[in-house]
Amino acid sequence: MRATILIFAILISAFAPRLCSAQATAQTTTVLDTIYANDTKNVALFFPEPIRQGITGSDNFVFTYNREKEQYFGLLQAKPGKESNLLVVNRNGSIFSYIVRYKKQLSKLNYFIPLSSSIGNEKPIKVDSILAESSEERVDNRTYYYQKFCSYLLNRKQRIGRIKKRNEGIILTVENIVFDKEELYFVIQIENNSSLDYDLNFLNLSIETRQKGKRKSLQRLYQEPLYKYNLPSKIKENEMARFVYVMPKFSLSDDRRAILELNEKDGERNIKMKLSHRYINNPN
Questions:
Q1: In whole numbers, what is the pLDDT of the chain averaged over residues?
Q2: pTM, two decimal places
Q3: Which among 46, 278, 44 is positioned nearest to 174, based on CA atoms?
Q4: Which secondary-structure segment (H or E) carries 102?
Q5: pLDDT recorded at residue 29
Q6: Which are the contacts of 201, defined by CB distance < 8 A and separation ≥ 6?
């Protein structure tokens, strides 16, 4: 009998660490990010897919979104009280979960949420469907971020200054230059006040450098945009178009300037606009 008890004790001591390890693994939970809100400002959350459902765990937090027409963003407000949680389900079944807290002073008002922040999906995704999905249908997180941030900038009324030039009823305006992360966002408007449609050939941004010495010359280096949002191919008569160029971050010295060159296809209503280093080095 004593021998049996001894063997049983040995077996328990051998398997106990594994059991404890398994229990610890099973109890491991995902650490949720915290979003702060208050009752004087709207905190905007932009999701990778339209919102189908959004629920807060406490009445002192309110999450509003368009219930009739699915949209990509929702607005969060909070009253003083204990922390709670926010659960959001996208149209494709992706689930997002956050801790929400009240904070009197907010340092962040906009959250652009990548698909990688999803904690799961309400229904399992078949591997076959993932493999079958074409590369054209996949949008990486960076492109998605560009899309949402550009859309946000076009809805703002912020301006960096009066940067405008016209030719034959065509008006080119740089409304805003915004720095975010590692990029500069140029919010641009083309207005056609003429009686002819304007067919856009190209709109290029270059950096022009004055060469020093006896023979002064100009050297121009074209800058390739990382992303173009809502760039039109045609602006009809008495209409306008607003769009965004996303450029890699850069700055300019006193002897350099940016050149925005608008060119008409099969026409001569071209515009060459000079952007001082002051605008580039002091974006919004």
A1: 82
A2: 0.52
A3: 278
A4: strand 94-102
A5: 55
A6: 263, 264, 265, 266
